[in-house]
Queue: 3 jobs
Job 1
Amino acid sequence: MLSYIIRRILTAIPLLIGITLISFFIVQIAPGDPTSLLMNPDIKPEDKVKFIEKYGLDDPIYIQYFKWVGNMVQGDFGNSLLKKGTPVSEMIMNRLPNTITLMIAATIIAIIFSILIGVYSATRPYSKSDYLFSTGSFLGLATPNFWLGLMLIMFTAVNLEWFPTGGVADLDAPFSIWDRIHHLILPAFVLASADMAAYTRHTRSSMIEVLNQDYIRTAKAKGLRSRKVIFKHGLRNGLTPVVTLFGLSLPSLVGGAAIVERVFAWPGLGSLFIESSFTRDYPVIMALIVLSSVFIVIGNIVADILYAVIDPRIEY
């Protein structure tokens, strides 16, 4: 197992290098110029030249890339072009805990509810409840995150006043775990909605197939309780496709977090990425692209490891 993990990490290195290379040049050739948003019409030409020289914007693109990669390897992502020279790493660390909290909460919600609903539907196939949950799953897959978020804000936050409309905590209020959870419920549910629908469909299909296997019928014939047969003998094998789907859904989870954070005014990396894209803050954009890529690679490695944990028949 350890050698497999090391090989996966080593093969991820050229992948990350390719991502940085392609992303850097795409950002550089994109329309627009950061100086056009930073400078006002009355700025002196010599001050504009000093700004360009300070950030190395007059260097050839490949020189800028190698300088950026060299600094990044040393843990230096540069300084923001807009935040008066604020280090990019500082901006990321200020928002990283919020994004990680949101993604973990959304993943937990998606996995728990999808497993419970999927197993329930698999044990009662083609029943009214199964059709109801199947319809809900299709609606969850078809509903855009931003629309669902706006509707929940309108009905549950504005009309019913059950939840706050956005943010991570009440302003000028003492720190409270319940206050943080109260603000987290809506954005986490919205972010989890699409994955929860997909996991539910795959869990149901996989469990229906597993429950028809011979070893399940043998366990039932031995007199084991139905709940024990389902959750101890059947569920581990039935979750293998869900683990695969989890690894494949990480890019959409990272991308969906940006939209959800924007809708709920959640101060995370996703909203920072959107703000930096509008203002063409190149150092921040590139740092977030690299960090998102690392998240996805690590998530896929974790998904591969979970195969062996869930299904003992799998060895590396």
Note: The chain has two domains: 2-73, 89-310.
Job 2
Amino acid sequence: MKNLILVRHAKSSWEHHVIDHERPLNEKGINDANSISMYLNSNNLNIDGVFSSDSVRTKTTANIFFENLKIDRSMLQLNHDLYDFSGSNLISVIKECPNDIHTLMVFGHNHAITAFVNTYGDIFIDNVPTCGVVQIEFDITDWKDLNKGKTVSTLFPRDLRK
């Protein structure tokens, strides 16, 4: 059994005159990343691998999650291939994941995240919002055998604002 936790980076700022890859989070994004990760902290996730896009907004989101979930920072692997919007690189990176990792957390970008959860999960999600988290369970022992899984949970910032 393999478990995948996908996280779309938190809301970024457009106030800075930087290239897309270098955009930081805005205040709402920082607050959402803290709220979502602190909520997840109570779920006793047994994460044993973390991949993240190397963009500033994605690394910052991952760092907030690491702090609040008390994840060992040595697990983080930055991967420029996850600076992916179509989803083809995202699929490749997941399929190449070492098999000793059973619960993988991946921080990435949209449209790739939404396309992935709608292709490999069993619940249609119109749009995974910024800082949205989707957990999918796969009945496989080897990541390269990735196929349709079961969407076991979703958590979006709006869920915590009710």
Note: The chain has a mean pLDDT of 95.
Job 3
Amino acid sequence: MSKGNAPLKVAFVHPDLGIGGAERLVVDAAMGIQSKGHIVTMYTSHHDPNHCFDETRNGMLRVCVIGNFLPRSLFGRFYIVFAVLRQLALVIWLLFHEKNTYDVIFLDQLSSCIPLLKWFSSTKVLFYGHFPDAFLSKRESILKKLYRLPFDKMEEVTTNMADTIAVNSQFSASMFNKAFSSGLKQATVLYPPINFACYDNSVDMSDPTVKLIETNKKIIVSINRFERKKNIELALRAFALLEKNNLLPKDDFQQNYRLVLAGGYDKRVVENVEYLKELDTLATKIFGLKTFTIYPSPGIQQQHVPEDAQVVFLCSFNDAQRTYLLNRSIVLLYTPSNEHFGIVPIEAMYTRLPVIATNSGGPLETVIDKVTGFNLPPEPEKWAEGIKDLTLGKYDRAKMGEVGREYVKSKFSLEAFSDQLEDMMVQLVSTPNDHHFGGPLAFILVVVFGLLSAFIYSYFQ
């Protein structure tokens, strides 16, 4: 806490406190501000104690769940509609029960509730932008484009109503400016941090979940949610080419190498389930690789990964398993293109693990090509060559690891992030309120038109 300042009361509002980069960011931000002596509460529409980060279930952070009575979708449709409705329900509850309780509300991902906070409370709003939703949604048809129009406009209008805006990278800032016809009002680049203490833990080989994945094989790891946009098949194709293109001796490859595809997996999410099946089919039917899947099954004794498994799907890993993978792997493959930031390469570099990432988006600001890893086009052949070069010693993996660790320590510490975020909040509460009373009718019309267009879109599908 800044000297001479009273503790701030800060609410963090996030749609779903599951496992992912955005969730890791908001949890670290809350922990950082709390460590400064401020009073923190996290609000969310969904929190599953079996599918979340430890800080949100072990009492380190106070978590309140509001709005979970609303569904995430209707017959597999209207995801954006119900995401907005769930957030609006949460904020309306706040306005009735905790109005003006908080000095600052930290929002990320969804900005739709910002007008309500600006019109009906004195709380200052800090919005953290990961990436414009306008560029995350596919628009395969004219109907889908029309359906998205009001939501895109709502994102632009409501985001710019925040008192302060921060973004996770220069790349994201440029994409927000590209997505918004009026541009993004002045934003501060606030790189996501990692909490070094969480990654300094030694590998706990007594942990039963670690024993499940323990192996003497050389591990090549990919960490991403099981979503198609993450392009996990790039890692799988590159791994298969190590044998197919004779980059590694066949016997050596089959006996001594394993690809672990680890990431967030939620059985409620249809895409997670479908994409995992697609990847398994690609591995077994197309490449002839032996696979094994570990599903999240709390309290159930699971089978150890068979020694002959070449590809392991690790769904919703825990912290102990993450520590094992980051410390025992030989390279991390980060496959998404145009990723807005990507916290996983930072985690890997801090643990001295070289990274191969796509040469686009946030990784261009984090991975130093041929110094802490490689920035490569998303082409399996080139990634396979990169893996070979690291594996067979063309590049010094140990040196890359040491340089990567020092680089992360100098640029992505939780302490530096927390200091900058605290300064933003302290400055924010000292500025006069701007309630933006000029646009309520316009906002209501956009919301109504958005809901109407969603139902029209669904009807004609």
Note: The longest helix spans residues 440-459.
